[in-house]
Design a protein that fits this description.
Largest sheet of chain A: 2 strands, antiparallel
Number of helices of chain A: 13
Order of helices and strands of chain A: HHEEHHHHHHHHHHH
Strand content of chain B: 5-15%
CATH topology of the domain at 103-327 in chain A: MetI-like fold
Mean pLDDT of chain B: 84
Structural class of chain B: alpha+beta
CATH class of the largest domain in chain B: Mainly Alpha
CATH topology of the largest domain in chain B: MetI-like fold
Low-confidence stretches of chain A: none
Number of helices of chain B: 15
Number of domains of chain B: 3
Shape of chain A: globular
Helix content of chain B: 55-70%
Strand order of the largest sheet of chain A: 1-2
Oligomer: heterodimer
CATH class of the domain at 103-327 in chain A: Mainly Alpha
Distance between the termini of chain B: 34 Å
CATH architecture of the largest domain in chain B: Orthogonal Bundle
Distance between the termini of chain A: 52 Å
Low-confidence stretches of chain B: 1-15
Largest sheet of chain B: 6 strands, antiparallel
CATH superfamily of the largest domain in chain B: MetI-like
Structural class of chain A: mainly alpha
Radius of gyration of chain A: 26 Å
Number of strands of chain B: 8
Strand content of chain A: under 5%
Amino acid sequence: MSGVAARTAERTYAAVMNVPERPMRWAQARLGTGRLAWLFVAPNLAIFGIFTFLPIAINFVYAFTGGPELMPADRAVIGLANLRELLSCSNYLNPNTCTRDIFWDGVWNTLRFVVLQVGLMILFSLITALVLNRKVIGRGFFRAAFFYPVLLSPVVVALIWKWILQRYGVLNAVATDVGLHPVDWLLNGSSAFSWTVFVSIWAHMGFYTLILLAGLQAIPADIYEAAAMDAAPPWRTFRRITLPLLMPSMLVVLVLGLIRAVQIFDEVYVLTGGGPGTATTYLVQFIYQTGFAAQVREYGLAAAASLLLAGVLLVLTLVQLRATRGSR
Amino acid sequence: MTSAAQLLTARRGRFRADWTDWVSYAYLILGVIVMFGPVLWLFASSFKSEAGLNQFPPTLLPWQPTQVQVAGQPAPLPLVRVLTGAHAGEELAEVRRIGLIAQLVDPRTPNQVIRLRADAIKPVMQVRAAWDNYTGLFSKFNFLRYLFNSVFITVVATLITLLINSMAAFALSKYRFRGRDGVFLLMIATLMIPPTIILVPNFLIASALGLVNSLWGVILPGVATPTGVFLLRQYMLTLPDDLIEAARMDNASEWRIYWRIVLPLSAPALAVLAIFSVMWRWNEFLWPLIVLTRNEHFTLPLALYSFQGELTTSWNYILSMTVITLLPVTIIFILLQRRITQGIASAGVK
């Protein structure tokens, strides 16, 4: 049975891959082996060109033009007006004084979210990796359990927690059991915010735990043996050996975590829709809503906001390059 | 194997387990509950009837009122247990309830109506899965369509991803040509440009190419991936060049060398990329949300998102659809757990 399937798969593979044989042989004869290489990278480069590099250029066009038209040729050049509109505020700490208050709500929410989420996530990932690095029975199982949510779709993640957090959900049942009042967890601004932090840590920490665990396992065992020989107390061993040697992995985790957290959207959008009010509206949601979900699509503003986000990400990436180069 | 004795001897070099071991296990077990519990709760809830879902406090198992078929009654009746009075302990079927008085019949003597106060009876519950949550998906929703869309996007995108990224990786690892390092750097540089910052122009390009409201609009933008090129190139660099030279001696074309020799030898790296690609595609949300606006093009995550926004849709179908959406990923994970975790630890990508 499986033999037949394997043979059919093999035959299909051969039949499909044989199709470009003649043109490629012809190209090889015409171009020579060296230039044939370009033909091999061409499909990939074409996709990158059309869907990554070209968009970067067009994004600038949108950012500096206005109007609801999608076609760049139909749009009026307005220079820095989009950026100015986003950035005009009489008091930057108070979004209500800004022309685009939701943008600034998004900025401050994202900032608070990033600091809390990345900080706590690294802390828990580190603790988990340290525990998993010990001689634990069933380590593979525990590692898998912590990693499993990473694979779930953000929509699934959001619905799992929405179901738990709803008014008549299991969390409120537990709360009433211990004598507390049931709470509408997602209808109160600060509790909804905390839950978006928690849920995104829940969904992503397994990934960072794995990287830190790999970093821990790369630390040579004889260093620890030497420390044990010197009867170094565990805390000092951790501070003087583990932590410094884990620094490269920690940096990777920190920067990757920051880059991802700044772009938080999917699971939060499904979980809270950005609410209540704008309590959990983050930057990417602002871009999505202004560009695609609003009655009047303001492509220019969305592109200008993307540009600002890209600036932040560029700085983070440069820091990462700096850091990884420094550690090697 | 994992006996209590072993648990006690899993120590840090001393004879007895010390307190740090207990703390570790407590942490891990708590962790498993927090990480796994919510998914299990979703799974258990997905078998409850609508009434069961609205019940507070909720139960773990799908308890439902027991129904009996009584002669002379058109529909099955709920079974109740009598708590007090002359019929105490008997199980009767409830025909109807008028105010506080319930009209009951004994299923064995269906013609004799017994009237009792409602507080003297209690429904008899039994654990019964509400399979209708799952079967109803097919009759009440366009569910097969969403499933097809998701599967189509995942399979086609993964096949194209494997093909074009391995072609690029082959050229970048096995040929010396002018501009090779530049091309490689350019591809890796795209790691720095996440899709979230080029949404608007990508939407323009998709609509200019007629890809809006087409599954290809979801598939194409993501098929070239820097992660894929990097992963495959690093692997192909380790393949000995002698094999390729030998094939050239036999007058094999370069294309043939690629698909007959290099690709089969790169199977482990291709498998890792295939797993990643399947996960990415199956779970994708923001870009499909922008490109696919019509119901008939929805993928499973999009359908889930749009249903949970409609207040009229009840949770029972959302829960079962969520379970179906997470099932394939879960099965792949159970089967290929080691390969996935190792692939991520070594490549540092997700």
